[in-house]
Amino acid sequence: MHRPATFAALLGLTRAASAIGDFWVQNDFCARVKGASDDHPVTYEDPQTKEKTTHGTADGRRACLHHCLTYTATQAIVTGLGARALGIRVHPGAAAAALALSLTTHYIADRRVPGKGALEKLANKTGKTNFYKLADFGMNGAFHLDSTWHHGWETVAALIAATKATAHSRTRLERVRASVGIAQLGLQQIEDDLSAADVDQAELAAILRELIEDTDPPGGFIPAVVQLLTAAARRAELIEPDRDGEASCPLHEAAALITDNAGQCLIWAARALDPQGELA
Fold this sequence. Notes:
By secondary structure, this protein is mainly alpha-helical. The chain is 69% helix and 4% strand. It has helices at 3-25, 28-33, 57-86, 92-110, 118-125, 129-133, 141-162, 172-194, 201-212, 221-239, 248-273; strands at 42-45, 52-55, 88-89, 166-167. Helix 1 (3-25) packs across helix 3, helix 1 crosses helix 7 (141-162) and helix 3 runs antiparallel to helix 4 (92-110).
């Protein structure tokens, strides 16, 4: 996998993980208390017990840190699993550096103490004070500036994670297993369609013909299986011990049996269900 593709994949995984960590994993207490300070305490009401508690700087810092730790853990899990599924090997050092950057920058942004938060100060210095305070017209300026801050640092983190990342090349057997899995899903869909209560004689016959006939689009299922076995037989002819046909002949026979027996039986069944269908 080329580095730009690796970066794009890691960025997409990181972005998805960030949204999950920020909006689903973060609990209500952290979301409300993480900006608390002694000068601007936050009163939190437990949604279950309705008990109210007041929180200052120490609790605000702990709540923000707790959120950032669960947020970063979510990124590590989601991105790690996604990278593994895509065959991307992320260097442990690069992954650690990326996660550390994500945790630190997230804490800086989310510790929004009124009048002292890093984002509010940055907005004031860059002429975005009014936008930061905007909470009308269906928009929330502070939320959007917060999001762009996170997105920017997520991009940097993905760049770091992509450093020294390598692609895990699947073995031939792994590719075959994956292809067999895909084929099984397709066959399961056909089985579900065959099990439908409204399938009539003509439609069942048409489905059977699709499995055997080399029509438009070319290549039915049975001919495809025969072609696969024939390819295996030809390869066996080249590598079998003593070139005596002990491996290749059974494969050729299997292909012939499928064509002559299974294929012919499907044709007979389709003809019995809908003789007129062969004329279509």
